[in-house]
Specification:
Blueprint (H helix, E strand, L loop, with lengths): L1 E4 L4 E5 L7 H13 L7 E3 L12 E3 L1 H12 L6 H11 L6 H14 L1 H4 L11 H17 L1 H4 L11 H16 L5 H13 L1
Parallel strand pairs: 3-4
Antiparallel strand pairs: 1-2
Helix pairs in contact: 2-3, 2-6, 3-4, 3-6, 4-6, 8-9
C-alpha cells in the first residue's frame, strides 16, 4: 500500500499489507498527519470505503473505465451496452453535467430492458445492471477534480502511482529468483527513491 504525493512525484509512505483495509488506510493517513503532511485530496482506484475522509476524493477515471470493461466488455454486442460504452468513453472529454444527463437518458430508455427477469425471477441483464450501477454510483467521485479546479490541482487518474508500480514490477520480475525477504528489501529500496 503506497501513499504518493502527486505534486512532489514522491512516495511518502508505504507498507506491506496482505489486504487493503479501512484500518490500514486510516493508519497510513494518521502516520502522514503525524509527520505534518497535509492531505488536500485523495485519488483512489475505486475503494469506495475511502470516501469517509473529510477531503475531496477523486476516483481514477481509468479504473472506472476498466470496471465498465469488466461488465460490458470492450466491444459489446447489446445495443444498451454499446451506448453505455460510448458514454464511458466520453468520461475524459465532457463535463459531469453532460455525463449525468446522458446516463439519466440512457436509464430512462433502457429501464424496461434492465428490469427483465427470467422464469426463475432473476434479472436477465445482470452485467449491464452492474455496469450502470457502478458508473451511476461513482459519477460524483469521477469529477472531483472539476469541482475543486480553482482551489487545488487534483489529477484525474492514479497514473503517477501506476507508473511507479510498473517499473517496480519490472525490477521484481528481473529478480524473480529472490526470496521474499530480499524482494521486500528491493521494493522498499525502489519506493524510497
Amino acid at each position: 500500500m503506497v501513499f504518493r504525493s502527486y505534486e512532489l512525484k514522491k512516495n511518502l509512505y508505504w507498507k506491506v499489507v496482505n489486504w487493503e483495509t479501512i484500518i490500514a488506510y486510516k493508519d497510513g493517513i494518521k502516520y502522514l498527519q503525524s509527520q505534518w503532511w497535509i492531505i488536500e485530496a485523495v485519488v483512489c482506484d475505486g475503494k469506495r470505503w475511502l470516501f469517509w475522509l473529510n477531503v475531496p476524493v477523486q476516483m481514477c477515471v481509468f479504473h472506472q473505465k476498466q470496471i465498465m470493461r469488466k461488465y460490458i466488455t470492450k466491444n459489446p454486442i447489446l445495443e444498451a451496452n454499446k451506448e453505455l460504452n460510448d458514454i464511458t468513453s466520453m468520461l475524459w472529454i465532457v463535463r459531469k453535467t453532460t455525463i449525468k444527463e446522458w446516463l439519466a437518458d440512457w436509464h430512462r430508455r433502457y429501464k424496461v430492458f434492465l428490469s427483465e427477469k427470467n422464469e426463475s425471477g432473476n434479472y436477465v441483464h445482470i452485467r449491464t445492471r452492474k455496469a450502470y450501477r457502478s458508473l451511476n454510483h461513482n459519477l460524483p467521485y469521477l469529477y472531483t477534480f472539476e469541482d475543486y479546479q480553482w482551489e487545488i490541482q487534483i489529477p484525474k487518474t492514479t497514473n503517477s502511482l501506476e507508473s511507479v508500480f510498473w517499473h517496480m514490477k519490472q525490477k521484481i520480475w528481473l529478480h524473480r529468483w529472490l526470496k521474499k525477504e530480499r524482494k521486500l528489501k528491493l521494493i522498499d529500496d525502489f519506493l524510497s527513491k
